[in-house]
Amino acid sequence: MKHTLHQEFNKFYNKEAENAYFSPGRVNLIGEHIDYNGGLVMPCAITFGTYLLTAPNEDGVFRFRSLNFDETGTIPLQTSYTKEGDNWFNFPIGVIQHFTKDGHELKGLDLLFYGNIPIGSGLSSSASIEVVTAFALNDLFNCGYSKLDLVKLSKSVENNFIGVNSGIMDQFAVTFGEKDKALMLNCDTLDYEAVDSNLGEYVLAIINTNKPRKLAESKYNERVQECQEALTALQKELNINYLCDIDTATFEKYAHLITDTTVLKRAKHVIEENERVKLAAKALASNNLDEFGRLMYASHDSLRDLYEVSGIELDTVAEYAKTNPNVAGARMTGAGFGGCAIALVKGDAYDDFSKAVTEYYTSKIGYAPSVYSSLIGNGVGLLSAVVN
């Protein structure tokens, strides 16, 4: 891969690349729709992501090329930068704008990007591009940002420059990810614990439903509002700031305060899912993958029945996984209504699983999913130092 990228860089720019970087994508192993409720999520970095090769130029411009997109960009050094239509290189431009706004003096740079994260799959291709660009600029121009600074900077780019109102989990996971470790993260405080997660004989199968997620944004906002209604109802008798400030026993004692049955279901998912994350951390740390798989299935069932964000495509993947003895667990991951599911599959049975789930899904849905295999990998870094 590295050799091919260097050849392509030479072809584009007629010179050698001087630096190479990599930032992964991420999946959330468990803890869905918890980040905006003050609870715990458990993402991990995956072993595919975004590669970036760079070399300085004397022309006072940033040149953007990608092996994934035909569009190219040449942007002169400026005191302020704005979006360039709907181009993919708005993500690195946004990062450059943030560095410039912070008073860092940047110089001309030729950049070549290549990503092997499926676009639009919910595996954080945008966060991966933002973070790898920020890491590279910080390294090349000695800007002195910490890793946490880069996380916050990249989230700001996504929210304020790109205009997507996302949380901080994606940028955090691709920056702080560690090989064979899941990150149990509080998205509110950014406190986290790296949980040993050696998958042993298993691999992480990522099943992209290939369904466009058109409903995700509107339904996401609806769920946020419903959780706020549940919180407001509970605050009549409880001194809490978030739904996840209470455990299941407390919730059951005060659930009568929530009179809307739909809102009650949403709150029940959130509080139980937060507890599942804690149980999942214990299962992974003790290498109990059967228990972790059981919690994955329970998470999916809750997202389907209580939170109602899965849909027939994601349910079909989970439904098939339960019939396969080589699968320990499966669940939807991400906002829902399309995107990806994940499954814990025995490595020596992965090819058979991939073929069988594709056939089953296609027979039910009418078109094929895309299936990928990953391990839990490292976060952003110099390409030579990121050994996944």
UniProtKB/TrEMBL annotation:
Chief location of this protein within or outside the cell: cytoplasm
Residues in GHMP kinase N-terminal domain copies: 90-177
Site for Transition state stabilizer, residues: R26
Catalytic activity: alpha-D-galactose + ATP = alpha-D-galactose 1-phosphate + ADP + H(+)
A GO molecular-function descriptor: galactokinase activity
Domain of life: Bacteria
EC class of the enzyme, as a word: transferase
Pfam families (alphabetical): GalKase_gal_bdg, GHMP_kinases_C, GHMP_kinases_N
Residues holding substrate: E32, H33, I34, D35, Y220
Similarity section: Belongs to the GHMP kinase family. GalK subfamily.
Cited HAMAP family: Galactokinase (MF_00246)
Protein name as catalogued: Galactokinase
Gene responsible for this protein: galK
